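Supplementary Methods. Inverse-folding protocol.

Structures were first reduced to a C-alpha cell string of length 155. This string, shown here, constituted the complete conditioning input.
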C-alpha cells in the first residue's frame, strides 16, 4: 500500500508519501512534481515508523540486521523514491515484533507560490501528483489525497 498526501502549511506545502511494504520486493515511486515547484535546499526526510515510535532507517536496520536502502532524488521532472533490500527475514521479524510490515514515511516539500507570491502552485502540484506511479513486483494499491480539496485518486 502506498499513500501519497498533499498537505498544507503556512509558507510551504508537503507531499507525505507513506510506503507500507508487506512483501520482499523493491518499490519505486515517482512523484511528477518538477524541480521548479519543489523547495530548494530542503532535503526530503525519510523515517521508518512503527506505531508512535520513529527510527532513522539506518539505525533500525542495524538493530534488526537488515540492509534496506532508501533513496529520495529531487530531479528536473519529479521526485523518485527507491526502496531496495527488503527481505522476507526482515518482514517476518517486523511481523513478530510489531504485527505489521515495513512502513517508511517520506516528506518532500513544494512551494506554495513563486518568489513574488503571485502564482498558486497548489493546483498544479495536485494535478501532477495524480499522475504519480508506483513500480512494484507485487500487487500494489495506492491512494493519493489532498488537504486542499476532497478529491482523491485510488489505483
Amino acid at each position: 500500500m502506498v499513500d501519497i498526501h498533499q498537505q498544507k502549511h503556512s509558507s510551504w506545502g508537503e507531499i507525505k508519501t507513506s510506503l507500507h511494504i508487506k512483501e520482499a520486493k523493491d518499490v519505486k515511486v515517482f512523484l511528477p512534481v518538477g524541480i521548479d515547484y519543489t523547495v530548494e535546499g530542503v532535503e526530503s526526510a525519510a523515517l521508518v515508523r512503527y506505531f508512535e515510535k520513529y527510527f532513522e532507517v539506518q539505525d533500525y536496520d542495524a538493530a534488526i540486521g537488515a540492509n534496506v536502502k532508501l533513496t529520495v532524488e529531487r530531479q528536473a521532472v519529479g521526485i523518485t523514491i527507491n526502496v531496495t533490500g527488503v527481505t522476507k527475514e526482515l518482514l517476518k521479524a517486523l511481523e513478530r515484533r510489531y504485527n505489521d510490515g515495513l512502513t517508511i514515511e517520506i516528506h518532500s516539500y513544494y512551494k506554495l507560490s513563486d518568489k513574488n507570491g503571485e502564482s498558486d502552485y497548489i493546483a498544479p502540484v495536485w494535478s501532477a501528483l495524480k499522475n504519480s506511479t508506483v513500480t512494484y513486483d507485487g500487487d500494489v494499491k495506492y491512494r493519493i489525497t489532498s488537504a486542499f480539496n476532497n478529491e482523491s485518486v485510488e489505483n
